[in-house]
Design brief:
Elements (H helix, E strand, L loop, with lengths): L4 H6 L2 H75 L6 H14 L3 E7 L3 E2 L3 E12 L1 H12 L5 E9 L12 E12 L2 H8 L2
Antiparallel strand pairs: 1-3, 2-3, 3-5, 4-5
């Protein structure tokens, strides 16, 4: 049994209103389910994406402001590295550096009793080049020698320094002291070249 428009016209007003409200609610439900819900979901997704993008933009602005500061820091680190590398001799400079140390001993009027280069000790990016030295002379001459070594343009560390005087019974002016020490100079190792040489 089909309901026609005439059947609806014959209904009392109260039922017509209920039927109209029901039809509007049914249309509203279908509109919500098929159109509005998808639009609201898409709007929420776009709002979330917008918030994420705004956060990323804010973070990138902070990074962009810091880039110039980081560039200046990198330039400063490169300058410091170049200064440090200038103080680390290359392999070809080692003989002249050792000659400078021996020359400092001679110019301080010291007698060189021992000048023994020891085996190189490799570290991560540099090598230690130790030299055992024994000299004899006056106290001021020994002090002048150590001062001259400290003023060399390259890094030279003095370790295990020991100064001995003559036995008291042999102490006749001028007193000759004997100084022994281990001097270490350092050489930069080009790690990238070594790794390239190691690979087959």
């Amino acid at each position: 049994m089909a309901i026609t428009a005439d059947d609806i016209k014959k209904l009392p007003t109260k039922y017509k209103i209920l039927l109209g409200v029901g039809a509007v609610l049914l249309l509203g439900y279908f509109y919500y389910m098929f159109f509005l819900q998808a639009a609201l979901s898409k709007k929420q997704s776009l709002t979330d994406n917008l918030a994420t993008l705004e956060t990323q933009i804010a973070q990138r602005r902070v990074v962009a402001r810091q880039i110039e500061q980081h560039r200046r820091e990198i330039e400063q680190l490169n300058e410091n590295l170049n200064i440090a590398l200038a103080k680390l001799p290359e392999k070809k400079d080692i003989p002249s550096l050792l000659s400078s140390v021996a020359g400092a001993a001679m110019s301080a009027n010291l007698e060189i009793m021992l000048f023994e280069p020891l085996p190189q000790a490799s570290r991560e990016f540099y090598a230690e080049l130790p030299v055992r030295i024994s000299v004899s002379g006056g106290f001021r001459d020994i002090a002048a020698f150590f001062e001259d070594v400290a003023e060399l343009p390259r890094i030279v560390n003095v370790a295990e320094a020991m100064i001995r005087g003559p036995a008291e019974k042999d102490a006749v002016p001028p007193i000759i002291l004997k100084a022994e020490c281990l001097m270490k100079t350092y050489m930069f190792l080009d790690v990238s070249n070594e790794k390239a040489n190691e690979s087959p």
